[in-house]
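[Discussion] Sanity-checking designs against the backbone

I'm trying to build intuition for which residues belong where. Below is a structure token string of 159 positions. I'd appreciate it if someone posts a full sequence so I can compare it with mine line by line.
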């Protein structure tokens, strides 16, 4: 819980305004207990239903949920039909200001899928700065999963 927040250098944390979104109620309460006093705005709820301002954030960072299921998003956004992990990438880009950075751990299916619809959409919204393929089992000890994952670094277009 809060690996990214806990790893943030104290000097940087003092200069940042941080919003954390956690779908799980217990985990969200734990995040509040750990980081709320230091000014982290912890919002408990589904990412797709959490009210957030578009074009506002400088940085979006996280570990997206993995799965082949889709999000129930009635907003008619172009990424609304994407699988959950790709939905998160699309939504995060909406939230970033032009020139903002996104850094996400995501399923390797984002980059490897035969259908390039998601990659074309992401390329229309952002510049891929770097993609790192993690070794299989990278999360075995901390998350008990053997999933193949990538870290994507994107800069939102328009700056």
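Best answer:
Here's mine. Compare freely.
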């Amino acid at each position: 819980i809060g690996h990214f927040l806990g790893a943030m250098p104290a000097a940087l944390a003092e200069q940042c305004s941080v919003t954390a979104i956690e779908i799980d109620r217990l985990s969200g309460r734990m995040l509040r207990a750990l980081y709320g006093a230091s000014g982290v705005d912890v919002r408990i709820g589904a990412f797709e239903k959490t009210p957030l301002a578009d074009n506002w954030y400088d940085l979006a960072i996280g570990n997206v949920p993995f799965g082949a299921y889709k999000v129930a998003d009635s907003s008619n956004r172009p990424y609304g039909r994407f699988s959950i992990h790709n939905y998160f990438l699309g939504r995060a880009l909406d939230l970033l200001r032009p020139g903002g950075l996104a850094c996400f751990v995501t399923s390797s299916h984002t980059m490897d899928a035969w259908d390039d619809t998601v990659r074309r959409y992401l390329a229309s919204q952002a510049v891929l700065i770097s993609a790192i393929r993690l070794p299989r089992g990278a999360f075995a000890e901390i998350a008990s999963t053997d999933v193949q994952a990538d870290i994507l670094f994107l800069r939102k277009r328009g700056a």
